């Protein structure tokens, strides 16, 4: 499980533009479902990539599931050359997403996110309606139970 | 209604709304802290269980 508080503090300290999506966003909205990793959509601008490298570079990010020893440099060039990165790190698994199905990029999602304070960091969380839409768009059988829960939550919700 | 919607509706019958309502009483930070604390507790339990299994071999 990712150390969420330390991760958010690292991202906040470096002033990274990001949106929490996936299971952690669902938890922020009130889902009691447990999740193992943190998914964020990050802004792809060069200045933000530099901030991302500054925030996470010292945490030894490495491609999750890649054989040990495979060359991987976590730098701006690597981030520019790719889009979505599933990583391990000293703080646990982190998924850095340039885009998500059913939602798109940071710029497309930022107006569909909510600002929230957690662990002393102001961060953006994907809104519940869009979170449900992205999970539906992903079309993964494993998300069906989560979608059912989020749709019920939508009827009872209050973002506090 | 398409089949995915029908399946989702079936799953809704088994959603424990009491857990959702408990979560909704908390602030966002409290929800995220609970998620992290529970995750850490499970990690510890896994480690202790693995150790116990090793010992019993």
Account of the 3D structure:
The complex is a heterodimer of chains A (160) and B (57). With 160 residues, chain A is α+β, with helices and mostly antiparallel strands. Chain A is 39% helix and 22% strand. Chain A has a single domain, classed as 2-Layer Sandwich (Beta Polymerase, domain 2), CATH 3.30.460.40. In chain A, a hairpin with a 3-residue loop joins β6 (99-100) and β7 (104-105). Chain A is globular and about 45 Å long. Chain A starts with a helix and ends with a helix. With 57 residues, chain B is mainly alpha-helical. Chain B has one domain (16-56). Chain B has 3 helices and no strands. The radius of gyration of chain B is 18 Å and the shape is flat. At the A-B interface, α2, β8 and α7 of A face α1, α2 and α3 of B.
Q: If you compute it from the alpha carbons, what radius of gyration of chain A comes out, rounded to the nearest whole angstrom? A: 15 Å
Distance linking N and C termini of chain B: 54 Å
**Main pleated-sheet profile of chain B:** none
Shape of chain B: flat
**Rounded average pLDDT of chain B:** 92
- Write the H/E string of chain B, N to C: HHH
What amount of the residues of chain A lies in strands?
15-25%
Task: Count the E strands of chain B.
Answer: 0
Strand order of the biggest β-sheet of chain A: 3-4-5-2-1-9-8
């Amino acid at each position: 499980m990712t150390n969420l508080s330390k991760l958010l503090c690292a991202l906040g300290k470096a002033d990274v533009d990001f949106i929490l999506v996936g299971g952690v966003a669902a938890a922020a909205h009130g889902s009691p479902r447990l999740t193992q990793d943190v998914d964020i959509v990050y802004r792809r601008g060069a200045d933000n990539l530099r901030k991302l490298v500054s925030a996470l570079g010292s945490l030894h990010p490495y491609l999750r599931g890649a054989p040990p020893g495979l060359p991987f440099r976590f730098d701006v060039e690597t981030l520019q050359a790719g889009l979505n990165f599933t990583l391990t790190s000293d703080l646990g698994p982190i998924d850095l997403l340039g885009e998500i199905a059913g939602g798109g990029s940071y710029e497309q999602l930022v107006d569909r996110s909510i600002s929230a304070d957690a662990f002393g960091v102001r961060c953006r969380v994907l809104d519940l309606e869009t979170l449900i839409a992205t999970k539906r768009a992903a079309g993964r059988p494993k998300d069906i139970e989560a979608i059912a829960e989020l749709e019920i939550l939508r009827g009872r919700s209050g973002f506090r | 209604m398409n089949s995915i919607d029908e399946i989702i509706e079936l799953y809704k019958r088994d959603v424990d709304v009491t857990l959702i309502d408990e979560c909704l009483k908390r602030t966002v930070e409290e929800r995220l802290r609970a998620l992290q604390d529970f995750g850490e507790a499970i990690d510890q339990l896994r480690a202790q269980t693995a150790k116990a299994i090793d010992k019993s071999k």
